Amino acid sequence: MTLLKGLLINLLVILVLVLFYNMVVVNQQKRISPRFQKSVLAFFSSILIILSLLLAIAIEENFVYDLRFIPFLLGSLYGGKKVTLWLGALLITARIPIGGDGIWLTALLVICFSLIFFCLSSRFEEKPIKWRLFFTTFLAFLYSILALLIPSFYYGFHTIETFFIYSLVLTAATFFVTYLTELLRTTCILQQKTIKNEKMEIVSHLAASISHEVRNPLTSIIGFLQLILEQRDVPDKCKIYASLALDEASRTAVIIDDYLTFANPHPEKLHALEIDKEILQCRDLISPLALKHSVDMKIVFFHTDKIKGEPHKFRQALLNICKNSIEAMPTGGTLTIVTATKYNETFIHITDTGQGMSPAHLARLGEPYFSLKEQKGTGLGMMVVFRIVEGMGGNIKVNSEEQIGTSITLSFPSFA
Ligand code: ADP
Ligand code: MG
After folding, report:
1. Which ligand sits nearest to residue 384's alpha carbon?
2. Residue 160 pLDDT > 80
3. For this UniProt entry, which segments traverse the membrane (predicted)?
4. Mean pLDDT over all residues of the chain?
5. Cα(312) to centroid of ligand 2, in Å?
6. Which CATH number does 271-415 carry?
7. Does 369 have pLDDT greater than 80?
8. Which residue has its alpha carbon closest to ligand 1 atom 18?
9. Which region holds residue 156: left if phi is over 0, alpha if psi is between -120 and 50, else beta?
10. Residue 100, phi-psi category: left (phi > 0), alpha (psi -120 to 50), beta (remainder)
């Protein structure tokens, strides 16, 4: 009974701190850099490990039992390799003052499980929630069995009751704590998505209602300005004015095209797109801008499949991304485009060596009117990219580090 009571108090402390961590970090996720988030996760897990050890119950002389495995497990799997190393070292060090042969057992288990976490942590967050729940629960069950079975062989202490209580509480507690963590993360992600979608909805209505009305007269204006420029008897001064007006009108046309694509993102005619052809066309269109910024373009094709979409829109998405990348490298750099096919998915990685974005700016990427380019930017480019890719059933992942660069990965279901 003492063991059960002790473990339940330990569980309560863990639940309270998980909720607190959620309040501090998960809700502020978009404003905190991933590196700092990991440090905070390591900090909370460390506190929980120490508190668990303080609340530990001695079953047999020199052997204490508690739920320290939960912060070790979750901290390592969500935090990555460095956090695993730190928590593993902390677990062993913090166990030393309690003394006894239990230290060797702790060290053995920590090393074995650290190796498992090391192999898994990089892929853990990509797995479905059900898999994560099942896996963490299974690991906790395995740990609970080993933590009692190994010493009981050598020291002959075991009662079925202890086995049963420890194993059941640790396994069930791990399941519930993981479930709670996932629930809180999902709620936060959904909340942010809803806010973004509401904004998009407003822009979409606006775009649909005014863009068409403006596009047609604008096409005539551009046409007439071009005619003026072609006339021989027009004074040079007028031609300069007409050329300036044409530049501005063309820029407006680009903005309206972005709005129109946004208002109607779903491809009307789905084609099997040959990505290499589209990317090469995009390169031809963008190369004058790249040349102006002394940007070197590298393109490598490794993909084997085609994807489904509308060429014009797909090209527009690529152009918008590449334009941003080049604009982020005002003093030159490298823009790399690499394609790949893996498990029926086709990937396009676009990487630049530009000025990058802070986590706060990265979180706002794709929001209507978000631009850091003052007069020059419209804040529509990435919004349209997100919309087009979504319309093609694809996904976008963006990584960016200030002064290092940005890498954007588009993934689409392959089309045989
Ligand atoms: P715009 O280019 O008109 O400003 P976008 O939606 O295309 O609007 O981009 C929004 C903002 O995101 C840009 O102003 C820029 O600050 C930032 N951004 C986008 N792509 C990159 C990139 N590759 N590197 C650095 N910053 C970027
Ligand atoms: Mg842009």
Report:
1. 1
2. no
3. 6-27, 39-59, 103-121, 133-157, 163-184
4. 87
5. 17
6. 3.30.565.10
7. yes
8. 324
9. left
10. left
The whole-number pLDDT of residue 396 equals 95
| Span from the CA of 101 to the centroid of ligand 1 (angstroms) | 58
Atom 25 in ligand 1: residue holding the nearest Cα: 356
On the question of pLDDT at 17 being above 70, the answer is yes
Who wins on pLDDT, 375 or 11? Answer: 11
**Predicted confidence (pLDDT) at residue 335 exceeds the cutoff of 90:** yes
Q: What is the pLDDT of residue 265?
A: 56
**Ligand 1 atom closest to 324 (CA):** 20
Listed residue (394, 197, 391) closest to 313, CA to CA: 391
Q: How far is the CA of 361 from the centre of ligand 2 (A)?
A: 14
Q: What CA–CA distances, in Å, run from 5 to 59, 175, 360?
A: 13, 19, 44
Of all protein residues, whose CA lies closest to atom 16 belonging to ligand 1?
Answer: 372
416 confidence band (pLDDT: 50, 70, 90): low
The residue ranges of every structural domain in the chain are 2-194, 201-263, 271-415
What pLDDT sits at residue 90? 93
**pTM, whole model, 2 decimals?**
0.62
Residue of 324, 355, 397 best suited for mutating to test ligand 1, as the one with most atoms within 8 Å of CB: 324
The answer to whether 64 and 56 have CB atoms below 8 angstroms apart is yes
Specify the residue with its C-alpha closest to ligand 1, atom 11: 371
What average pLDDT score do residues 223-239 get?
89
Give the ligand 1 atom nearest the CA of 325. 23
CB under 6 Å to ligand 1: residues? 320, 324-325, 328, 352, 354-357, 365, 370-373, 377-383, 406
State the CB neighbour count (10 A cutoff) for residue 193: 10
What does DSSP say about strands 295-301 and 333-342: parallel, antiparallel, or unpaired?
parallel
More confident: 177 or 213: 177
Report which bound ligand comes closest to the CA of 322.
1
DSSP helix/strand/coil, 294:
coil
